[in-house]
Amino acid sequence: MLAIERKNEILSILQKEQRVLVAELSTRYHVTEETIRRDLEKLEKEGFVKKTYGGAVLNKNSTIDMPLKIREKTNRKEKQKIAQTVASLIEDGESIMLDSSSTSLMIAQELKKKKKLTVITNSVEVLIELSGCEGIQVISTGGTLRDSSLSLVGKMAQDVLKKYYVDKTILSCKGIDIVKGVTDSHEMEADVKSCMHNCAKTTILAADSSKLEHVFFVKVMDLADGDILVLDKTPKKEWVDFLTKKGIRLVTGTEENRK
């Protein structure tokens, strides 16, 4: 295994388990503990981890944005469930905007089953996934390519989005908080998401439940009356009461919630 592959796998483990131990990683990858320490030192310099005695923990700094390829490997089962649920909320013939989150590619794969859609996106992966799909018109925002997320951002992307008004926007985020609202770690990504939110009749926020009660660097939006929050499982009563009071529909993928 190449060093970069090992580092990426370590990041994936940290995303899921929040911490790693040098001795365990040494055994797992059949390398010396010194090699693992060097891997962790590099990840610390890149801002992804904080070294601890005998290991490291995930850096939860609100401005840290994990590479897309790492995020796509995390909570895949939950994201697949969310993607299927989101697709069930999209009707044939609708126009939608879809962001460049780690769940977007899975959502795009589910949307390919629709008969007729117009999809506007700033995600390079979604553009490729939906290219050549009969019945799906795909519009790219253009903009500046952000390598770590394979997304198109900046003023050009926002100017294109503002020309359209769609039935539904599908977004994800880094954190959702009752008081602080929907937040993200990167300002340019947040600007695009906010613009998409303003260009839609209804916004569908797709997030696994681990995002609840977390606040990141920049605010994206507040969900409004008529918007939809799609989670992988039902949150605690405080959240259910809050969403009900705000007129935000909660969908968790169960038949009961879809009715």
Notes on the structure:
The relative contact order is 0.11. Residues 255-259 have low confidence and may be disordered. Helix 2 crosses helix 3 and helix 6 runs parallel beside helix 7. The protein is of the alpha/beta class. The strands form four sheets. Strands 6-5-4-9-12-14-15 form a seven-stranded parallel beta sheet, sandwiched between helices. The chain contains eleven helices and 15 strands. Helix content is 39%, strand content 24%.
Task: Describe the structure concisely for a colleague.
With 259 residues, the protein is an alpha/beta fold.
Q: How are the strands of the biggest sheet laid out side by side?
A: 6-5-4-9-12-14-15
Largest β sheet strand count, sense and barrel closure: 7 strands, parallel
Number of helical regions: 11
Question: Globular, elongated, flat, extended or rod-shaped: what is the shape?
Answer: globular
> What does the radius of gyration come to?
19 Å
Write the element-wise H/E pattern from the N-terminal end onward. Answer: HEHHEEHHEHEHEEEHEEEHEEEHEH
- The count of strands amounts to 15
Classify the helix fraction into a percent range: 25-40%
Mean pLDDT: 88
Q: Could you say which structural class the secondary elements and strand pairing correspond to? A: alpha/beta
> Uncertain segments of ≥5 residues (pLDDT<50)?
255-259
Measured distance between first and last alpha carbons: 48 Å
Beta-strand percentage? 15-25%
